[in-house]
């Protein structure tokens, strides 16, 4: 079981089951959505995700055709995203987790778009665009 929340703690969620493996995505869209050098997201079946939003604060933004990003409208915290073609899967924003998450990143993706001020100093494999599926399966993403 995992638990998470937004910065103002008005929106909470719980997750039953294991989150998928993850990578750091350095694409422009993930950088903008996270407000950081990269996004860190992990997939889960929507049926295993329970949202507590008593004040109806969660809003969704269609950041590209068919991709929706959910966030708290009070504090702006990004919470999850999903694709309309696979609504049964969501991608949790790992920075919103409150519980311990024991997986390590499998890849840096879209390093061709990374911020010019970011240096990647770890030994995690880097890919100009998508990581091959044998390295990282990005559950709920547009990965080919």
Task: Describe the 3D structure.
The chain is mostly beta strands. The chain has a domain at 2-21 and 39-106: Metal Binding Protein, Guanine Nucleotide Exchange Factor, Chain A (Beta Complex), CATH 2.170.150. It has one helix at 28-34, and strands at 2-5, 12-15, 22-25, 39-45, 49-52, 58-64, 67-72, 78-83, 89-93, 108-109. A hairpin with a 2-residue loop joins strand 6 and strand 7 (67-72).
Query: What is the overall pLDDT average?
Result: 94
Largest sheet: 7 strands, mixed
Share of helix, binned: under 10%
- Measured by DSSP, the beta-strand proportion falls in 25-35%
Shape designation: globular
Strands ordered across the widest β-sheet = 6-7-8-9-4-3-10
Low-confidence spans: pLDDT under 50, at least 5 residues?
Answer: none
Report the span from N to C terminus. 29 Å
Helices, by number, come to 1
Our Rg estimate from Cα atoms comes to 15 Å
The assigned structural class equals: mainly beta
CATH class of the domain at 2-21 and 39-106: Mainly Beta
SSE run: EEEHEEEEEEE
Note the main attributes of this structure.
3-stranded antiparallel beta sheet; mainly beta; 7-stranded mixed beta sheet; 5% helix; 1 helix; Metal Binding Protein, Guanine Nucleotide Exchange Factor, Chain A; 144 residues
């Amino acid at each position: 079981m995992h638990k998470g929340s937004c910065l103002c703690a008005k929106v909470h969620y719980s997750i039953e089951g294991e989150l998928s493996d993850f990578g750091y995505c350095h694409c422009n869209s993930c950088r903008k959505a996270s407000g950081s050098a990269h996004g860190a997201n992990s997939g889960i079946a929507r049926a295993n995700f329970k949202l507590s939003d008593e004040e109806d604060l969660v809003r969704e933004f269609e950041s590209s055709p068919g991709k929706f990003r959910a966030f708290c409208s009070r504090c702006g915290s990004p919470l999850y995203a999903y694709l309309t073609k696979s609504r049964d899967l969501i991608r949790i924003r790992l920075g919103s987790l409150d519980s311990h998450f024991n997986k390590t990143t499998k890849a840096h993706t879209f390093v061709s778009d990374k911020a010019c001020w970011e240096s990647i100093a770890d030994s995690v494999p880097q890919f100009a665009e998508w990581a091959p599926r044998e390295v990282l399966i990005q559950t709920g993403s547009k990965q080919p």
